[in-house]
Structures are given as C-alpha cells and as structure tokens.
Design brief:
alpha/beta; 9 helices; Rossmann fold
Length: 309
C-alpha cells in the first residue's frame, strides 16, 4: 500500500484553507465541483495526512516557531496560504503586511528546504501593474502598485526554483467573507449595488483552486504557475451575473469607475490583471469558466442560508 503524503497547510482557517483541507481528505467542499479533476485522479481517502494550522496555531512571522512546526510535523509538502490580505489597510500597516507576506514566506521556504519538503506558496495577480493590455503569463515582469502586491512579490523572491509559486486572483469561497456574499445578500434584500467596470481580472473559486493545489501537491513541479477560473471579467459583470442568478433585473447593478468609489480605495489596483492559465492547462484540465464557479457559490450560499435557523 502506498504511503500517505503528509501535507501541512498554513492559513487553514481561511476560505481556501478550509476547502483545501476538505479536498485533501477526499471531501467535496460546498460550492465545489466534485467532477473537476485536473489530473483525472480523484482524491482517495487516506491518500493525504493533513495538518492544518491557522493563525492561532502558528505565527508565521516568528521564524523560530515556523522552523519548530515544520521540524515537528515533518511534512512532505507545505501549502502556504497564511497571508496578510487587507489590501487597503496594508497601505497604513506596511511593516505588518511585509512581516507576514515576505517574512512568513521566507521562513517557510527556509524551513521546507531544511527538511526536504516541497513548498507551494500562494501569491497574487497584484504583483503586476495592469499596463500590459492582455492576460499576464508567468514570465512577465512584475511591478506591484500597492504595499500588498509588493509584499507578496517580496515573498516570491525568497522562494527557490524548487518551490512552487501559485499566483491566483479574486478568490472567493462559500466559507469566507468575500464580494459574492455581499452581492448575494444585497440581491436578496431588494437593494441595488454599484460596481466598477474598469478593473478586469480573473475569478478564482476556493474549491476549484483547492483541487488544483492538490494536483500541484502530487506533482511538486516547482516554478511559477497561474491558477484561476477561465475567462476574464470585471466586478460589474460579476455583480450583474449574481443578480441574474438571484432573480434580479437589469437595474440591480450599476457600472461605475474606480474614481467614483466611495470611500475611495487606499491601495491602487491594476486596471487589468487577468492571468493566463495556459501553462497549467497545457498539462492538466483548466479550471471551469468563472460563470460556472460563481453559480455554484451562489447556489451553495443560498442553500446554507436556508439551512440556518
């Protein structure tokens, strides 16, 4: 019998982390597509032994604590999801943001190397400035516009060629606070919403990303990979689609420019940061279209709200 692969997941309490822990345990997280198998291999029960750590279990800014945890657990693979993700607040909390995103990733990469574990570090589309005019590929030059983007890029630079860097974008899951929850709640309450139509990117549903991370944990390929749901979109298009799924009319969502946002965003966002996932899809099946992923999220959110007394 093949020995189980030991996987350590940081940020296990986040919206991707909870879905990844479930997926590694051969469970289908809410909002996921059980039929999506990018490597055509369903996850078998007992295939992975998972240790999930949240921020209460491990302070990734403490280099000694990171080393102690990795040496104690001795995982085969580390999926590093723990991150500072408050994009606007990071503009006024630069040191804290860099301590988590740069320092935490540096410590994790060093600790992984020390025991021969494979590191998968999750990064962001915000390492780009959005001026390319088309989807970004893995080798494109980076030029982050925000403190958050700069901190994630700094963390990438501490990874080795043997580590796997996964850049993803606009992540949203059923279990977590994100824009889709807010839009669905507004649609249900009869309110309307205003969303920007001048920021383009790629949606990534947590369940689909989790399944792709399982494939990368199996393969341990190294290098940089862009992973997101298929096709680019805008926040206005997402809001309009969620409204349609919720039975709202064309007047539900209004398109505005970034300059019209109130309050204004503290951190600059790239105007176009959609990720090309061709490198991933040349080897494995691409993640489903974003409409499919968002529909699954909205349906699951609705079912969970109906089940809550």
């Amino acid at each position: 019998m093949k020995q189980a692969v030991k996987v350590m997941v940081t940020g296990a309490g986040g919206q991707v982390g909870v879905d990844l822990v479930d997926t590694l345990g051969a469970l289908a997280p809410p909002g996921s597509d059980p039929g999506f198998q990018p490597d055509e291999r369903p996850v078998a029960r007992g295939e992975f032994v998972v240790t999930g750590l949240n921020h209460r279990d491990l302070d990734v800014t403490d280099q000694s604590a990171v080393m102690d945890a990795v040496v104690s657990i001795r995982p085969d693979v580390i999926v590093h999801l723990a991150a500072y993700t408050a994009v606007d607040r990071a503009e006024t909390e630069r040191d804290r943001c860099f301590s988590v995103n740069e320092g935490g990733t540096a410590s994790m990469s060093h600790a992984a190397r020390s025991i021969g574990a494979h590191l998968i570090a999750v990064s962001t589309d915000y390492v780009f400035d959005g001026t390319k005019g088309e989807a970004y590929v893995e080798g494109d030059p980076t030029n982050p516009l925000s403190v958050y983007g700069a901190s994630k890029r700094a963390g990438e630079l501490f990874c080795t060629d043997r580590d796997t860097i996964v850049r993803t974008s606009w992540v949203m899951g059923v279990r977590g606070k994100n824009v889709v929850h807010a839009i669905a709640a507004r649609a249900k309450s009869g309110e309307c919403v205003r969303f920007v139509d001048d920021q383009m990117g790629t949606v990534t549903t947590a369940g689909d990303l989790a399944r792709a991370l399982v494939t990368l944990a199996r393969e341990r390929v190294g290098g940089v990979w862009h992973v997101a749901n298929s096709d680019a979109t805008t926040w206005f298009e997402i809001a309009t689609y969620v409204g349609q799924l919720s039975g709202r009319g064309d007047d539900f969502a209004t398109a505005i420019s970034t300059e019209e946002l109130l309050p204004p965003q503290l951190a600059a966002r790239p105007r176009r940061s959609d990720l090309s996932t061709q490198k991933f899809s040349r080897i494995w099946s691409p993640l489903p279209d974003w409409h499919d992923g968002v529909a699954r999220l909205v349906n699951s959110i609705e079912r969970m709200s109906q089940a809550t007394p």
